[in-house]
């Protein structure tokens, strides 16, 4: 959904010439002035674009990304535009290192939203092997541009008009990210002021080394080196240095200011030199025999405070603020001055923090000796910088964890709660509109239900609504299992939304829910909730409980999104009487029907298969889908009784009916499990057994 479609965009233009790059400006295939403006820049990688280590020069890529974003911004506003900021972006070595000479590099810039005088532009970078057509995502970044009038002041820009579903959610999420940006600098200052001695997120909480990034659609990794270091003596100093650049005409944009991409390119080059010097002293066990290279793995958000122009001197001052186990943080401060005023007139351009890794010949991060606070030298600001670097690394770890598809539970942070809630919503939208779903069952309203489901439908043998079940196996190429249920009901979306967002009212329709309670409300649109579910294994298993962050939003088209994800929070500690479960972003997408009378409901749940003790095959998907059916039928039954109008007088499932349905579910679940184990015969891609007949629509 939303950014999932954007990130999965793989349609690459055919390259007309192998010698010269070209720019293709594309508008959306709708009426002029509508849709999100898009610009595509295509480059052919040659040897001049590589650094000394044979990888695509990050300095070059940053300039291309800034140019692409500028073209998209000016396509929309029809005015000159300048770079104001870039959100954090990561360049994972295992993906970035695959970009090779002769490949096409596609940079797709899209204006996602406009805010009075500024615009958010997303730039997706993908590579294409021209011989095979294979494509891969390199990175995704978000820029903020401001329109400039003829006098050099800010100019108002027209709002963008999203048309397609994907554009509407790009538009909405851009507005949410803007809220995060406004608060981000204060959040980071608050966290840095605490001078945390080490990141608060433990490796146990992160659950593994490979973590996919998140919130803004980019990919990253929290890696642990295969080369361990124990007891080695730490290096004595942290490197710092200065350099100066002259802004020449080819460094400036079409209205005389230095390109933001050029400033970022100089910062990246400077950070590479500084980190290379640091690596000589920081490599655990000394420099290895093979070749090593420094790689800028991530750049924190950059904010350009003032412009520079042709003829200015750009002064860069850099520090290695801290060395971690497999990476180091480099801070670059950028100032500009003209020849007449000298350094006394220097004005601040920006400050940037870059995360650098040292890679071995196999492309894996090498172990580094962590720095100590007593290595910061005589500079009185060095020690606070060293401690603040730990806080920033903690923020990075939390942000990586937010979008992780391998770590089921996020570690809750009050400072980053807005970002966590946005990431939660984005996760549901993304999985809701994945293209590849395997149909498990389709039961139109009034059609006969399979006998087991009829028993679970309070005795009725016909489907009470249009119901369809499908599964996505190995979601995102990972060992994940995703189930999607689509319902069509006569209840208007606002009433459905009020019923579904309440954890207390879920017991009225969900057979498996034992207890649901609101732990704490977080603003008007988010809450921490605790839910306890009955085990299908009966008396042999403990109930499963979940600590969740629940978020919901109403979209401009009258639809609603409700998202939940597991969190680790002190207010809901694990209890020995429950088995703590984990769920990735899951929830509801509620759309109004075209005639305006009813609702189209989409429920999606994505889980780590190993935690459920199931595989990522069709048989496992049918088994999980079976466990959801009684709850979906209960929801439809309650909505038909008008339960969306209010909780009063709506008892939902009575205790006797609930216990009867639960007993039948456990019987069918155990019978299906035993028969599926006995019969491994595969028929038309699905394992035979009662789960096949249960969801196939047959009466057997």
List the helices and strands and how they pair.
Elements: H1 2-7, E1 22-26, E2 38-44, H2 58-77, E3 80-86, E4 89-90, H3 93-96, E5 104-115, E6 118-128, E7 135-148, H4 165-193, H5 203-206, E8 240-246, H6 260-282, E9 293-299, E10 302-303, E11 313-323, E12 328-337, E13 347-359, H7 382-402, E14 410-411, H8 417-432, E15 438-443, H9 451-456, E16 466-473, E17 480-489, H10 493-500, E18 513-522, E19 526-533, E20 544-554, E21 560-568, E22 579-580, E23 586-592, E24 599-608, H11 609-612, H12 618-640, H13 655-678, E25 682-683, E26 686-687, H14 690-696
Parallel strand pairs: 14-21, 20-22
Antiparallel strand pairs: 1-2, 2-5, 3-7, 3-10, 4-9, 5-6, 6-7, 8-11, 9-13, 11-12, 12-13, 15-16, 16-17, 17-24, 18-19, 19-20, 20-21, 21-23, 23-24, 25-26
Helix pairs in contact: 2-6, 4-7, 4-8, 12-13, 12-14
What kind of oligomer do you see? single chain
Helix run count? 14
Structural class: alpha+beta
According to DSSP, the number of beta strands is 26
How much is the radius of gyration in Å? 27 Å
Low-pLDDT runs: 1-33, 195-235, 644-650, 674-700
Helix content: 25-40%
Q: Roughly what fraction of the amino acids lie in strands? A: 25-35%
The profile of the biggest β sheet is: 11 strands, mixed
The rounded distance between the terminal residues' Cα atoms is: 37 Å
Overall average pLDDT: 78
């Amino acid at each position: 959904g939303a950014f999932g479609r954007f990130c999965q965009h793989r349609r690459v233009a055919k390259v007309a010439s192998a010698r010269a790059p070209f720019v293709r400006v594309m508008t959306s295939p709708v009426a002029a002035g509508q849709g999100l403006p898009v610009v595509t820049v295509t480059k052919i990688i040659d040897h001049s674009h590589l650094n000394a280590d044979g990888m695509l020069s990050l300095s070059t890529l940053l300039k291309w990304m800034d140019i692409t974003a500028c073209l998209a911004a000016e396509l929309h506003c029809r005015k000159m535009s300048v770079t104001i900021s870039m959100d954090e972006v990561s360049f994972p070595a295992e993906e970035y290192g695959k970009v090779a000479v002769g490949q096409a590099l596609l940079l797709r810039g899209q204006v996602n939203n406009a805010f009075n005088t500024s615009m958010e532009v997303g730039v997706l970078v993908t590579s294409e092997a021209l011989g095979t057509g294979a494509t891969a995502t390199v990175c995704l970044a978000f820029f903020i541009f401001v329109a400039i009038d003829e006098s050099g002041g800010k100019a108002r820009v027209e709002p963008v008009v999203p048309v397609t579903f994907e554009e509407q959610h790009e538009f909405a999420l851009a507005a949410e990210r803007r809220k995060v940006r406004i608060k981000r600098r204060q959040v980071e200052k608050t966290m840095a002021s605490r001078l945390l001695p080490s990141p608060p997120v433990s490796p146990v909480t992160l659950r593994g080394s490979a973590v996919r990034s998140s919130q803004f659609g980019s990919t990253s990794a929290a890696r642990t080196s295969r080369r361990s270091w124990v007891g080695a003596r730490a290096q004595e100093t942290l490197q710092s240095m200065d350099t100066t650049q002259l802004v020449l005409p080819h460094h400036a944009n079409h209205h005389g200011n230095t390109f933001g991409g050029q400033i970022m390119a100089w910062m990246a080059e400077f950070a590479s030199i500084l980190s290379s010097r640091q690596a000589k002293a920081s490599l655990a066990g000394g420099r290895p025999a093979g070749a090593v290279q420094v790689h800028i793995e991530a750049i924190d958000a950059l904010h350009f405070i003032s412009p520079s122009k042709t003829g200015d001197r750009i002064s860069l001052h850099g520090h290695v603020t801290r060395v971690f186990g497999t990476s180091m943080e480099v801070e670059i401060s950028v100032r500009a001055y003209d020849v007449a005023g000298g350094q006394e007139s220097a004005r601040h351009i920006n400050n940037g923090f870059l995360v650098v890794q040292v890679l071995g010949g196999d492309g894996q991060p090498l172990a580094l000796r962590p720095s100590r606070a007593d290595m910061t030298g005589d500079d009185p600001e060095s020690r606070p910088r060293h401690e603040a670097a730990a806080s920033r690394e903690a923020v990075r770890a939390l942000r990586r964890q937010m979008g992780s598809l391998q770590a089921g539970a996020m570690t809750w942070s009050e400072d980053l709660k807005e970002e966590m809630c946005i990431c939660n919503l984005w996760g549901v939208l993304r999985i809701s509109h994945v293209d590849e779903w395997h149909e498990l069952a389709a039961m139109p309203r009034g059609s006969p239900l399979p006998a087991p489901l009829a028993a679970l439908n309070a005795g009725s043998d016909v489907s009470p609504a249009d119901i369809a079940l499908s599964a996505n196996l190995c979601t995102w190429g990972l060992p994940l299992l995703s189930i999607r249920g689509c319902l069509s009901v006569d209840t208007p979306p606002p009433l459905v939304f009020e019923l579904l967002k309440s954890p207390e009212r879920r017991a009225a329709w969900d057979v498996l829910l034992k207890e649901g309670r609101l732990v704490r409300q977080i603003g008007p649109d988010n809450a921490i909730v605790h839910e306890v579910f009955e085990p299908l294994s009966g008396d042999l298993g403990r109930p499963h409980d979940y600590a969740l962050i629940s978020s919901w939003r109403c979209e401009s088209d009258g639809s609603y999104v409700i998202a939940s994800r597991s969190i680790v929070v002190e207010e809901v500690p694990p209890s020995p009487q429950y088995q703590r479960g984990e769920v990735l972003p899951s929830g509801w997408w509620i759309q109004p029907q075209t005639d305006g009378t009813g609702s189209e409901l989409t429920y999606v749940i994505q889980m780590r298969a190993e935690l459920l003790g199931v595989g990522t095959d069709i048989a496992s998907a049918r088994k999980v889908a079976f466990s959801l059916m009684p709850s979906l039928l209960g929801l439809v039954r309650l909505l038909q009784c008008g339960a969306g109008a209010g909780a009063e007088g709506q008892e939902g499932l009575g205790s006797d009916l609930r216990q009867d349905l639960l007993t039948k579910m456990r019987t069918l679940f155990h019978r299906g499990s035993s028969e599926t184990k006995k019969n491994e015969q595969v028929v038309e891609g699905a394992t035979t057994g009662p789960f096949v007949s249960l969801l196939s629509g047959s009466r057997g």
